[in-house]
Specification:
Layout lengths: L1 H8 L10 H8 L3 H11 L5 H18 L8 H7 L5 H12 L3 H10 L2
Helix pairs in contact: 4-6
C-alpha cells in the first residue's frame, strides 16, 4: 500500500498505456497481490476504475486552471495518460455526471 501511495503522490498514474502488469513491475509487487490490493482492499472494481479515480480529479483541476482555458480537452486527456478522447470522455461523465466540455464551461463562464 505504501508503494502504491508513493506512486500516486508522484502522479505516475498519468503514464500512457499503463497496465497493471507494468505497475506491478514498477512497484516490484506480484501482479496478483497488486490486483488484490486495488480490488479488495481499496474497493475498486478493476484497474481502470482505480486509474480513473486519480486521473479524473486531476482533469478537473486542469479544467479549473485559467492557464489551461485554451488548451484542448484532448491535450489534457493525453497529458493524463489516456490514449484517446473516447475513454476519457466516458470516464469523466461516469465520475462527474457531465461531459468535460460542460464541466469546463462552468469555470470559463465564471471568469
Amino acid at each position: 500500500l505504501n508503494k502504491l501511495s508513493q506512486f500516486i503522490e508522484a502522479k505516475k498514474f498519468t503514464e500512457t498505456n499503463l497496465t497493471i502488469k507494468q505497475l506491478s513491475i514498477n512497484l516490484t509487487i506480484p501482479e496478483h497481490q497488486l490486483r488484490e490490493l486495488i480490488n479488495q482492499q481499496l474497493g475498486f472494481k478493476n484497474f481502470s476504475s482505480f486509474l480513473n479515480s486519480h486521473r479524473i480529479p486531476a482533469a478537473c483541476l486542469a479544467f479549473q486552471d485559467l492557464n489551461n482555458m485554451r488548451k484542448p480537452i484532448l491535450s489534457i486527456a493525453l497529458d493524463l495518460g489516456y490514449g484517446s478522447i473516447g475513454p476519457f470522455n466516458r470516464a469523466f461523465k461516469e465520475i462527474m455526471g457531465q461531459t468535460p466540455t460542460e464541466y469546463r464551461k462552468q469555470y470559463n463562464d465564471s471568469n
